[in-house]
Hints:
By secondary structure, the chain is an alpha+beta fold. The protein has two domains: about 200 residues, no CATH class; about 180 residues, no CATH class. The protein contains 15 helices and twelve strands. The strands form two sheets. It has a six-stranded mixed barrel. The chain has a two-stranded antiparallel sheet with strand order 2-10. The model has no long low-confidence stretch (mean pLDDT about 85).
Amino acid sequence: MSLEFYIAKRIHFQQGRKNVSRPAVRIATIGIALGLAVMLISVAVVIGFKQEIRNKTIGFGGHIQITNFDNNNTYEMNPIKADNGLIKKIYSIDGVKHVQRFCTKPGIIKTDTEFQGIVLKGIDSGFDWNFFKSNLVQGKLIDLSGNTASNQIVLSKYLANLLNLKLGDSFYTYFIQDQVRARKFKIVGIYSTNFVEYDKLIILSDMRQVQALNNWSADSFSGLEVLIKDFNRIDEVGDAVYSATANRFSKEGKAYSTQTIKQLNPQIFSWLELLDMNVWVILFLMLLVAGFNMISGLLILILERTNMIGILKSLGSTDWSVRKIFLYHSFFLIGKGMLWGNVIGLSLCAIQYFTGIVPLDAEAYYVATVPITFNWLYILLLNAGTLLASLLMMIGPSYLITKITPAKIIRYE
């Protein structure tokens, strides 16, 4: 243990109650604690919010979609021929987790009192149910094991409430083509994602129903949805999928179009990227507040210990040696503040994570409660960054020690 560290330890852990610096030191420590707590909460909330919205968007459309190039950005799509050879080729791409077929058909639900435009999304037995299973609030999933097309559907809680429907009810859906065609469906499950943009549209049904409505053969689909293992590689995998389908053409000679979910929903992902700027602003402001609190506390400590500084210098201590004493002391104060900041910030995050005690307007924010995600890498980096930034901010004020000379202190005494 160095002499500077030993003296700093004595100063920090044996402060008397009558010390002038005690209130300032306490305020500085509280400032560090509150600043770090706010930063931890901000990062956990923003990461959680981005992850929730991103997962919901992907849940309705997959990471990558392959459709007919001739589509006009509507749900009334021209078909593609997705044979097993194409699907195997996509599966062979590094990073691809799952490939599933889908068909879509716009329609209108009409009940005795209400009507609503919807999109029937047809799926088959190869569909990945994980997303909808985690958001299922009533009933069960569609049984697709039969040899004939099932009339079972899963719709959202939003639509069920809007149309006064409940589990087990049947209703007619009308599809406008050359002539109006009607289909009767039975509700076997109700999901709720609070993502109103999709909840008010998407109804899951047997793919064979949609193929029959579109007069398509069994090997014709609206497109393929590709799920990948790592969202951070979406652009890389998207390019690989594009390369695998670029030389493919439909029976009519139409090319295939490959788009990532970011390209399909640019407004949503641009909005999510803007949230990062808000986090950086909060982090910068909190570091400034905590840093200025520590600077004021350190200056008061130096002024209070001018006599000790004069004595140490008269005994031969260098300016840097004395400055190290106060920097060590600052380290103890910052460490104590950070400890309490972690306790407060992570405790509040844990309470929200397990209880969802703070609600949100689901129609405005797409989530019912404030989302929390514990990213331990970011938490460690935030702690390390706060410690480093705070210590660097202490170097400047400690320069005041070089202006204190033993002769002036003796004259003052």
